[in-house]
Write a structure and sequence with these properties.
With 424 residues, the chain is α/β, with parallel strands linked by helices. Helices cover 26% and strands 24% of the residues. Strand 4, helix 3 and strand 5 form a beta-alpha-beta unit. The structure holds ligand LLP. Ligand LLP binds next to helix 10.
């Protein structure tokens, strides 16, 4: 990762031109970076894109063209996968539904489209088994430990609602057998933004769960959670080392079962975070005592990671008129929302910090970097602000992949009830 204070281009295209063409705030994705990331995971038999990180159709379609299969966590994500060209069924299944519950729409959609189910609760096994005469499922196990970049992204251990508790694996295998369901795979995902040490612990857990499930197992999934370096100095994961660890686990299972076992990985952030930039315009610059604020036209309605987790995103500035930006200032970067937590430079717990950025003028652009994962998808319409536009850069050209949401569309699904009340 490189952090530059002044940035005039993204993937070879001028920030100023992109902002003028598409307006602000706009998410820009560099397809080359996504391509490089996916390429680095080639040794795994299956790369299954966790589209929750960025489910825009063009991004999901890009992953499909690069050979990735896809994970879906809701009826909406199943429909997105299909709309982006994934077929239902297949071996290995192109689309896998991984969740802790079925809502009724998801259950019906899974059944109607023959979508493979990765069960994260014993109840899911029963509910699915009640609707099919036989079939295959995989189980997502909570191994009793977890780790994440924040407590809110830790998905293992007692504090997490995710997966089937490891001590209930035996019971879940019995439930599956009673419903004529074969358990063909074991999946563990302990958290998002996890470090190598913790990820490595998962191998042993998956191996023992797979052995408990027996030779019906034909695939194991390492889940996602691969970290990316948001901050200079953050360590980057050594994919070769990580693969070797998992490959050794898989090889031991292949030997134990005397048949091939396929090795899946399920990253979201790793594939898209570094490819994404949120470009916003500085609309006001003001001082509050000792703090200098740049107020931009993007807020936590566009990128919620700082307010939710105190997440750090590198930032840079591009001038609106092409002038060079040489002086720097220590600034707090905030958005337009009527809420004091609407600050991009904050730590977990809401403490405001400042960032060294070029001395800028109103009309210049702030580029929030490493924003391709859990950025747009976690956006909201808070303060009645529409969703940002999204642009994909491919082969040196920019393509609008999502129009900015029109403000009038914000309330098109709403109704004022007709009442017989007298007007005053
Ligand atoms: N597989 C499962 C079952 C998951 O629950 C997740 C993430 C992933 C894969 C992908 O994890 P990744 O490779 O992207 O770390 N909003 C948070 C992250 C929440 C992740 C939830 N599950 C953030 O902005 O950091």
């Amino acid at each position: 990762m490189t952090t530059s204070l002044a940035r005039f281009e993204i993937a070879g295209l001028s920030v100023r031109d992109l902002a003028r063409t598409y307006g602000t705030p706009t998410y820009i994705y560099d397809s080359k970076t996504m391509g490089t990331q996916i390429e680095s995971l080639r040794p795994f038999d299956v790369v299954r894109y966790a589209q929750k990180a960025n489910s825009s159709l063009a991004v999901v379609d890009f992953m499909r063209h690069k050979g990735a299969l896809v994970d879906a966590v809701s009826a909406g994500e199943i429909r997105r996968a299909i709309a982006a060209g994934y077929q239902s069924g297949g071996d290995p299944p192109a689309i896998v539904y991984t969740a802790d519950i079925f809502d009724s729409e998801a259950l019906e959609l899974v059944l109607a489209n023959d979508i493979h189910v990765n069960c994260g609760s014993p109840d899911m096994i029963d509910q699915y088994g009640d609707r099919v005469s036989e079939g295959c499922i995989t189980l997502r196990i909570n191994p009793g430990f977890g780790h994440g970049h924040s407590q809110k992204t830790n998905t293992g251990g007692e504090q997490s609602k995710h997966g089937i508790w490891f001590q209930d694996l035996g019971d879940s295998l019995e439930r599956a057998a009673r419903k004529n369901l074969r358990v063909t795979g074991i999946h563990v995902h302990i958290g998002s933004g996890t470090d190598y040490q913790h990820l490595a612990e998962v191998c042993g857990a998956v191996e023992s769960f797979a052995l408990q499930a027996g030779p019906q197992v034909i695939s194991i999934s390492a889940g996602g959670g691969l970290p990316v370096a948001y901050k200079q100095g953050d360590s980057e994961i050594n994919i070769e080392e990580y693969y070797n660890l998992w490959n050794a686990t898989r090889n031991r299972l292949t030997e134990a079962f005397a048949h091939p076992v396929s090795l899946e990985i399920e990253p979201g952030r790793y594939l898209v975070a570094e490819a994404g930039y949120l470009v916003a315009e500085i609309r006001a610059i003001k001082r509050m005592g000792s703090n200098l604020y740049y107020l931009i036209d993007a807020g936590f309605n566009n990128l919620a990671r700082p307010i939710l987790y105190g997440a750090y995103h590198p930032m840079s500035v591009a001038s609106f008129d092409g002038r060079s930006l040489s002086e720097v200032a220590s600034v707090v970067v905030g958005g337009p929302l009527c809420e004091s937590g609407d600050i991009f430079t904050q730590e977990e717990g809401g403490f405001v910090r400042s960032e060294l950025l070029p001395t800028a003028s109103v009309g210049d652009y702030v580029v929030i970097e490493c924003a391709g994962a859990y950025g747009f998808v976690m956006g909201s319409n808070y303060n009645s602000r529409g969703y940002a536009a999204e642009v994909l850069i491919q082969d040196g050209r920019s393509h609008l992949i999502r129009m900015r949401q029109a403000t009038e569309d914000l309330f098109k699904e709403e109704k004022i009830p007709e009442t017989k009340e007298e007007t005053l």
